[in-house]
Amino acid sequence: MPYGDISSVNDSLTFEPNRALRSHAHWRQHPIYMVAYRGNDFNAWLTTLQIDFYGQISDSIIDSWQFDVTPANHTFPMYIHDDICVIAYLNSSSHTILISFSVNSNGTITKSIIDTCTLDPVGGVPNHIMNLGGGYLAISITGAGGPGDIHTLKVETDGSMPLSPTGSLRIEPSRCVYPELYRVDGDIYAFAYEGPGDDGLLKTVNISKFGLIGPAAIDTYEFDPTGPCHDLTICKTNNYFPITYRGPGHDGFIKVLQIDDDGNITKSIFDTYEFDTTSCHNPDSVRLGQGYFLVVYTGTDLDGFAKTFMTDSNGHLNSTTIDTLEFDTVGGADPDLIRYASSGYAVFYTRDAYYGEVKTFTAQEAPEGKVHHEMLTGIGP
Questions:
Q1: Is the bond preceding 17 in cis, omega lying within 30 degrees of 0?
Q2: How many alpha carbons fall within 13 Å on the CB side of residue 247?
Q3: Contacts of residue 301, Cβ cutoff 8 Å, sequence gap at least 6
Q4: Secondary structure letter of residue 62 according to DSSP
Q5: Which among 30, 103, 258, 334 counts the fewest CB atoms within 10 Å?
Q6: Mean pLDDT across 165-175
Q7: Residue 190 is inside which H or E element, if any?
Q8: Where are the chain's structural domains?
Q9: CB within 8 Å of 238: residues ≥ 6 apart
């Protein structure tokens, strides 16, 4: 297949036949994957399943656990080490908490919480969790009242955690909606979000492998000063950073920016592309190797779409979509991407009647020196 080409759907599984809202998945260790979601009665659930290197999904789930029997939301799982995993989520008391638990190599869940860390006791909403390595995590949160926070902590080998974060930075004091963290290089991270006036903002920050956060943002750039800039997602291709988001008219937009290895942002847009002129909600993106990247989103009639793009050596998209797959013609809400093999991708989402679905497909990657995606390595992205 040429670089950027997308296959048809390889396999599919309904992992939750009742209700699965805002599903987020993570690699446990191949071939085991886990997905956390808001289920029946809006309680919090975790399910495990298997996806092999060919994209074949197990005929049924392996295990399932209702880890919070009260209403919960914004569930983000992460594999740490050995059998230890965590989930960050908003509980019924409007506290953002992190729980640790264990999932063995066969996908069996030990249905008890090892430890709990309160990330935000007054109503913050988690949006992204990153594995820094060595048990250290970074979590981006919209704090109570709307500011943007980054918290770090260490999960020990037995799953124990501190009662509260060991590192914190209020990186945006005003308004910060659904902030996303992305590793630029080494200890430098990008922090992209919808800010005051619905404008699009990008900041950079230093976070060490031991969870030490710099005292302030390194650099800031308002890449969309008119807005709106909703549901944004960021990835890296070549030395550029495409940011995909829902813009004016609910259309899908991509803007290409550049960040150097020290966290300095070039204060200009290298290219802009309106890739969907009808509808684009909740996009998610990953790189496909040198220059290429993949975006999934909820489009027209709430169907699920996957599209591929390429930035050239000058950061230009040339207003071109390489390939398109409509992976679900009935419903594809809140899609979440993971990489299960070279050029192999799985998308977890909410289908019609609110049940949870996962489908696999191939998106041909270009050669690259290293994989740069958290779902395969457990570190990053």
A1: no
A2: 20
A3: none
A4: S
A5: 30
A6: 95
A7: strand 188-194
A8: 11-374
A9: 290, 291, 311, 312, 313, 315
Cβ atoms of residues 209 and 228 within 8 Å: no
CATH number at 11-374: 2.120.10.10
Angle at 335 between CA 83 and CA 55, to 5 degrees: 60
Does residue 284 come out as left (phi exceeding 0), alpha (psi in the -120 to 50 range) or beta? beta
Distance CA 334, CA 19 (A): 13
Find how far residue 184's CA is from the centre of its chain: 15
Which residues 6+ apart lie within 8 Å of 370 measured at CB? none
Tens of pLDDT, residue by residue over 341-350, are: 999 999 999 9
Buried b (16+ CB within 10 A) or exposed e, 335-356: bbbbbbbebbbbbbbbbeebeb
Tokens, residue 304: 């699920």
Asked if 85 contacts 34 with a C-beta cutoff of 8 angstroms, the reply is: yes
Look at residues 80, 85, 154 and name the one whose alpha carbon lies nearest to residue 113.
85
**Whole-angstrom distance between the N-terminal and C-terminal Cα of the chain?**
25
- Kindly tell me if the per-residue pLDDT of 353 is higher than 90: no
Model confidence at 374: pLDDT above 70: no
Characterize the bridge pairing of strands 188-194 and 304-310: unpaired
Q: From CA 241, how far away is CA 361, in angstroms rounded?
A: 24
Q: In what order do the strands lie in the sheet with 44-50?
A: 21-29, 32-38, 44-50, 63-68
Residue 160 in tokens? 């124990």
- Using CA atoms, how far residue 8 sits from 32, 209, 234, 345, in Å, is 23, 39, 25, 12
Q: Answer whether 259's CB lies under 8 Å from 333's CB.
A: no
Q: Token digits for 326?
A: 């409509």
Q: How many CB atoms lie within 10 A of CB 376?
A: 19
